[in-house]
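Action item from last meeting closed. Structure (485 res):
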């Protein structure tokens, strides 16, 4: 958990930078401060940071309404990842709907979505990469793109602390209809007022945005998403030999989602391997995993740990059971699993954090309230092939939105500001969910993580002191000395 004094130091730097009209310094400090909030994830909203964001956006002249190109849509992708995240399915839908897409990427990151960029160009769209590391220049170039293409709508899809992208949207005013895609609905993010609408993919996120982020209900729009799959990719094989009669339990996702104080997830895996000698456990995601290494030592040749697989959908089809991570469930992995026809069985997460990831999720017995109930279900899935086949079959249809339906609903959102998916605001135990984040190891070394942020603070504070000293020397003998801080 971060020290609040660290955040307070950043806030002082933001204040100092604003009073010095140092836009770049204020933006950098706000970005680092928001990233601390996101990494720590102990609050979902902070009014003070939103006010700083609005103040910084207000330093620019607003982008005023002009004659819009009704068939042009801008999509800002702050990630630029190839075949990852939601950018592909959104841009693909816009192109299939016949829109001219202006695809803008944050060139400060060394990631490239080459195939998606080419897809946009082939469809008569335009691709921009804004590469300046100076925030004022970056925002100026983004504004230039808006003025040049005059889109009717724009989508903001980025990290929770991308101040350049978020400020650029916040200053757009009424120049176009704007939408923020909330892809991290259970975590802190900056920019609650940066867009006209916030697109939620489930009731859980919409409820948190309404109750905790103070976003009005008429600004919330619901659109489930589906996982991008490359149908051309064939199965690239098992990590090791799979012998006849072996049954494969697959799992994957960021490793921090498997860690709690009691090591609950790994105890469940150990139980399965110990009781069922024909089971092989396969975890797909790179990173340091001492827990998996211990399992590999305990069960030689029966625990596979690999990096991410580009043929993920085919991997799931070639496995028998998908085990959800705990204490945090993997939303996208659940969707991949359902699409492949594999029941994403698991232990119910704290605070119902995994609710509504699949359509009509409550109609399927996916999550179990106790470890014993989950063990009983896993035993049945492993020992009864007919039961396993029936459970896998029931999850495949109607639980993930289809590509055509997604495009139809996206078009409705652009034209009407809403979709056919109704939002139900529910009460969730958010404090229990935040406590899980506080207690688990997210794979972040605080000493390494805070190194860059503290270097920034020390450098900025030193320059402020040096500036004050110079002013004092220059103004020596005068009645008043106006300090910067």
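Sequence:
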């Amino acid at each position: 958990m971060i020290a609040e004094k660290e955040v307070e130091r950043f806030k002082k730097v933001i204040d100092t930078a604003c009073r010095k009209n140092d836009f770049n310094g204020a933006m950098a400090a706000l970005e680092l401060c928001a990233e601390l909030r996101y990494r720590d994830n102990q609050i979902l909203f902070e009014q003070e940071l939103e006010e700083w964001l609005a103040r910084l956006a207000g330093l620019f002249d607003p982008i005023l309404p002009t004659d819009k190109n009704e068939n042009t849509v801008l999509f800002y992708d702050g990630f630029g990842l190839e075949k990852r995240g939601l950018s592909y399915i959104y841009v693909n839908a816009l192109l299939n709907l016949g829109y001219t897409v202006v695809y803008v990427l944050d060139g400060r990151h060394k990631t490239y979505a080459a195939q998606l960029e080419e897809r946009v160009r082939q469809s008569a769209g335009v691709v921009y990469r804004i590469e300046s590391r100076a925030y004022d220049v970056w925002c100026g170039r983004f504004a230039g793109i808006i003025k040049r293409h005059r889109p009717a709508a724009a989508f903001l899809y980025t990290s929770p602390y991308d101040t350049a992208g978020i400020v650029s949207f916040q200053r757009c005013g009424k120049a176009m209809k704007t939408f923020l895609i909330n892809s991290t609905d259970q975590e802190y993010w900056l920019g609650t007022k940066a867009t006209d609408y916030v697109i939620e993919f489930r009731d859980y996120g919409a409820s948190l945005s309404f109750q905790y982020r103070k976003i009005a209900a008429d600004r919330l729009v619901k659109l489930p998403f589906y996982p991008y799959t490359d149908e051309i990719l064939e199965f690239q094989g098992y990590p090791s030999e799979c012998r006849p009669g072996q049954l494969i339990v697959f799992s994957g996702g960021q490793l921090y989602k498997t860690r709690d104080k009691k090591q609950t997830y790994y105890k469940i895996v150990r139980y399965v391997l110990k009781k069922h000698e024909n089971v092989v456990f396969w975890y797909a995601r790179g990173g340091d995993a001492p827990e998996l290494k211990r399992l590999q030592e305990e069960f030689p040749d029966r625990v596979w740990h690999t990096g991410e697989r580009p043929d993920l959908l085919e991997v799931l089809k070639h496995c028998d059971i998908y085990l959800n991570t705990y204490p945090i469930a993997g939303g996208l992995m659940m969707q991949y699993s359902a699409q492949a026809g594999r029941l994403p069985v698991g232990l119910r997460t704290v605070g119902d954090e995994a609710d509504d990831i699949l359509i009509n999720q409550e109609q399927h017995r996916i999550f179990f309230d106790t470890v014993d109930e989950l063990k009983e279900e896993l035993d049945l899935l492993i020992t009864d092939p007919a039961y396993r086949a029936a459970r896998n079959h029931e999850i495949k249809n109607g639980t993930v939105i289809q590509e055509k339906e997604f495009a139809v609903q996206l078009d409705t959102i652009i034209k009407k500001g809403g979709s056919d998916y109704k939002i139900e605001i529910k009460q969730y135990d958010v404090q229990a969910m935040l406590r899980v984040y506080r207690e688990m190891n997210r794979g972040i070394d605080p000493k390494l993580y805070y190194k860059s942020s503290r270097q920034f603070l020390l450098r900025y504070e030193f320059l402020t002191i040096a500036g004050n000293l110079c002013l004092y020397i220059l103004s020596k003998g005068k009645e008043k000395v106006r300090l910067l801080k």
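Note appended to the action item: The CA atoms of residues 74 and 154 lie 4 Å apart.
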